[in-house]
Write a structure and sequence with these properties.
Bound molecules: arginine
CATH topology of the largest domain: D-Maltodextrin-Binding Protein, domain 2
Number of strands: 17
Structural class: alpha/beta
Number of domains: 2
CATH superfamily of the largest domain: Periplasmic binding protein-like II
Helix content: 25-40%
Radius of gyration: 21 Å
Length: 275
């Protein structure tokens, strides 16, 4: 009898869990996980509201579905797990790059922005290795020029993952050099660590890098290239709990309506806002 009760409880439990796994999307709110230290995509304004390109996108999604959008700040490295579980969050909007590993945990919307990795350093500490021949005419630094350097990153971001790969893989540009990675909670803290002489360079996505350089004096940044025609390129998308297709579809509709032009307008708006 006791066994039966336990079994019944387990069944009841799994029903509740199944409802949970469908997301919090039965409510009239959309819960969005982010890490708000990544301007212009998400950052705190002077009133301590989370604002940015990703917030504007999700507000449009909320409008479409008739739901209120609630953004919460967490560490970046827990976002995919939070969205995978679907218990507290329906999706993650965080300038997040699509990666195969993340895809195992969450569904991604269509890509809405192409970014490249940048390297930040103290003014004059490094010089460009060249000017790209990929048609983008960008001053770049080669991964191989980071040999032996102390590198700061935001934990679990693509900057972290790529730097780790270059160091640990036998064919990596930093393999067998003294290069080492230190992880920080966000890119600004990593740049503060350059000032404190704990690291020499910081690897982070282009627009956040340019934003940080514009707001902290004494720093410079260049694109990070594998060779003259190969930037470290990636695509951003919004991640959604698997199975929550209503939300995924609404996000894709909004992204299609905005188009590249709409996204670029949001980017300039938030870059223009400054701090
Ligand atoms: N695009 C990079 C990645 O997906 C960095 C994203 C960091 N985002 C943030 N909101 N802090 O790993």
């Amino acid at each position: 009898m006791k066994k039966l009760l336990v079994a019944a409880a387990a069944v009841a439990g799994s029903v509740v869990l199944a409802a949970g796994a469908a997301g919090c999307n039965n409510s009239d709110k959309i819960y969005v996980d982010t890490n708000a230290y990544f301007a212009p995509f998400e950052y705190y304004d002077k009133d301590m509201n989370i604002v940015g390109v990703d917030v504007d996108i999700m507000e449009l999604v909320g409008k479409k579905l008739g739901k209120e959008v609630v953004f919460k700040n967490t560490d970046f490295d827990v976002i995919t797990d939070n969205v995978q579980s679907g218990k507290k969050y329906d999706c993650g909007a965080a300038g997040m790059t699509i990666t195969d590993e993340r895809k195992e945990k969450v569904n991604f919307s269509n890509p809405y922005f192409t970014s490249v990795q940048y390297v930040i350093f103290q003014t004059g500490a490094m010089t460009a290795d060249g000017n790209s021949t990929d048609g983008k005419e960008t001053d770049y630094i080669l991964w191989s020029s980071l040999a032996g350097k102390k590198i700061g990153v935001q934990r679990d971001t693509t900057g972290d993952i790529y730097a780790g790969d270059e160091i640990s893989s036998e064919t990596g540009a930093l393999y067998g050099t003294e290069a080492a990675v230190t992880q920080y909670d966000n890119a600004q803290l990593a740049v503060d660590a350059i000032g404190a002489k704990q690291v020499e360079v910081v690897i982070v996505d282009k627009l956040p890098a340019e934003y940080i350089v514009a707001n902290n004096s004494g720093y410079q940044c260049y694109a990070l290239y594998y060779d003259a025609e190969t930037a470290t390129e990636e695509q951003y998308a919004i991640c959604v709990t698997k199975g929550n297709n209503e939300l995924l579809d609404a996000i894709n509709e909004v992204l299609a309506e905005l188009g590249t032009e709409g996204i670029n307008e949001l980017v300039s708006k938030h870059l223009g806002l400054g701090k």
